[in-house]
Each structure stands twice: as C-alpha cells, then as structure tokens.
Design the sequence.
C-alpha cells in the first residue's frame, strides 16, 4: 500500500517500538473511569521493554496530578512520564517571546505552572499589557477570563492555544473542549491562534527527545488529533477503538488522519499486526475481505478478530480514494458497534 496506508508488524508492537506516546482520555481512561484492558495492556507492554509517556492535550492539570490519577487506576506512572499541552504551549511561547515578559494565562494550574517555569511573568488582565495570551482548558473558566483574552489579543498580544479540541470526553458524555472556548476568543477578535497541542506534533517530538527514544509509536483514540499528529510528525500511530473515533471513522479518514495500525484496545501492543493485501479484486486481511464496487464498500467474511474486517475496509477505501475514486459514505457501516 501507499505510505498513507496501514503498516504490518510481524512482532508485537511492544517490542518493535521502544516508546509509546499514549493519549489519556479514551485510551488509558474515560473521565474518571478505567478502560477495560488498558492497565493490563500497558503493564505487559512495559514488561516487554516498551517505555511509556502519556501525552495529553489537557492543559489544566499538573503532570503530578495526571500521574497520580493513572497510578490510582492501576497504571503506575511518574510525573516525568507525562507530557501536557501546557508544557508544549510554554515551549511554543519560547520560540517568539523572551523570558521575563508578561503573559496572560487563561487556564488552570497546570498552564500557569508551565508558563512560570519557562520564566514568564504571569498576569491576569489585558490592562497589564501582556505580549502573549496562552489559553488552555479549565472547568472553572468563564466569560470574564475569555473577555480578558479577547481584549489582549485585540490589542496585539500573540494568542497561543494549548490545543484546539472542540470536545472533551467525560464520564457523562462529550462536553465543550478547549477549542470551543478558543473559538469564542477567535470570534471576538478575528485572530487565528497558534496551537501547541495535537494535531501539532510538537508534544510528540518533545516527549521523544525527553525519553531519548529511537522508535516511538503514537497511541490514540482521536483521528483528528492523536493520529493526525502522528502523521504530521512522521511517527507510526495506533488507533484504539475505545474512545472518540470509531472504526467507521477510520475507514472514512482523510489521508492526513489515517492510522498506521488499528486495534480494539491496548492489548494490541502485545500482538503482531497483519497488513491487508490485494487478491482477485478484494483487499484481504486474514478472514476479512473488502472491496469498492461502483463507489460502494462491500464486505465479506466473519473473521475471528473483527478488526481484520475493519483493516480490509480501510485498505479498500483508502486505495480507491487515493486513485481518485469516490466512495459513498452511506455504504460504510458502523463496524464493531
């Protein structure tokens, strides 16, 4: 397949790659609840020699708090194994803003700590003449803080967002994410913000550099952030179907958001991954078969591993799209639902 297609691995991913860059919400946990097989899968990956860094677009919490939550969910984690969007935003600030300058922080404690650690003077009002506004999600944010950000940006302050996620998974469902709040400031000012979080690969590259890894693997549940960041950073990405993006989403993914590997959950780190191959007009992955005929996706087989049918469907659809053929989304079912 093309470079935008699925990859294969004859050995478990935990031994092929030396570092897993693991997303949190939808991968390691959901809200405050554990995800089935997450703790066991990660523990076994560690036992195989794979190191872990948890890379999150959440900028509201300190790395220590994230590590504590993971440890409480039977995923023992040190604070230096957490890379947050707050840390990435502070690094992005440093590319243009000298240390010591005033920066308006609109976000939680994690963002304030990261900006302070880079040597900036944190302010709370546009009247303090900040040279930049750094915005990250925090559940306590309200109109007053967003208004201060808009005032400062309108006066020329550089607007840096920790991430642009429109939604945030919680135990009760999906809630507005940082991207939705950033959108309020964008609408008020007409200024497009810079973003440090996924899908920018900045956090991935910082985490790889920190770990000194040679063969990293991104593990995420969102195609538009986790896997798009993997593609943008030229890092293989594993899409686990425990969070936001579904198997159907993967089949219909734009080229820049396609995963390199697909799996039901984090046990996928412990097994080889097959690559679909073309046979007699069908794309075949073990017992799963798929093809595009007259713009419609056709599926055949009941494989032992249902993900094999998804892999075949991805291969058939991506190949057709890359050749310029139109595929009717209505013919792609809700696989694995």
Sequence:
């Amino acid at each position: 397949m093309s470079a935008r297609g699925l990859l294969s691995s004859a050995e478990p991913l935990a031994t092929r790659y030396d570092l897993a860059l693991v997303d949190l919400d939808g991968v390691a946990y959901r809200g405050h609840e554990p995800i089935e097989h997450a703790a066991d899968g990660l523990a076994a990956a560690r036992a195989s020699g794979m190191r872990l860094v948890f890379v999150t677009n959440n900028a509201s919490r300190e790395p220590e708090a994230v590590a504590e939550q993971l440890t409480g969910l039977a995923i023992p984690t040190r604070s230096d194994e957490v890379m947050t969007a707050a840390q990435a935003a502070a690094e992005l600030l440093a590319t243009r803003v000298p240390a010591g300058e005033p920066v308006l922080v609109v976000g939680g404690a994690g963002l304030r700590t990261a900006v302070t650690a880079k040597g900036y003077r944190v302010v709370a009002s546009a009247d303090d003449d900040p040279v930049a506004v750094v915005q990250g999600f925090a559940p306590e944010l309200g109109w007053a803080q967003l208004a201060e950000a808009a005032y400062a940006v309108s006066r020329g302050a550089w607007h840096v967002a920790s991430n642009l996620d429109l939604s945030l998974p919680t135990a009760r469902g999906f809630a507005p994410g940082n991207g939705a709040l950033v959108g309020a400031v964008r609408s008020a000012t007409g200024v497009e913000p810079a973003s440090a979080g996924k899908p920018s690969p900045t956090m991935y590259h910082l985490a790889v550099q920190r770990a000194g890894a040679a063969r990293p693997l991104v593990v995420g549940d969102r195609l538009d952030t986790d896997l798009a960041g993997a593609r943008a950073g030229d890092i293989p990405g594993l899409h686990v179907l425990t969070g936001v993006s579904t198997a159907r989403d993967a089949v219909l993914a734009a080229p820049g958001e396609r995963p390199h590997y697909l799996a039901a959950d984090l046990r996928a780190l412990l097994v080889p991954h097959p690559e679909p191959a073309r046979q007699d007009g069908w794309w075949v992955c073990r017992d799963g078969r798929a093809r595009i005929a007259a713009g419609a996706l056709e599926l055949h087989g009941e494989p032992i591993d249902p993900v094999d049918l998804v892999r075949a469907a991805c291969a058939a659809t991506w190949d057709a799209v890359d050749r310029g053929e139109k595929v009717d989304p209505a013919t792609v079912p809700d696989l694995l639902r």
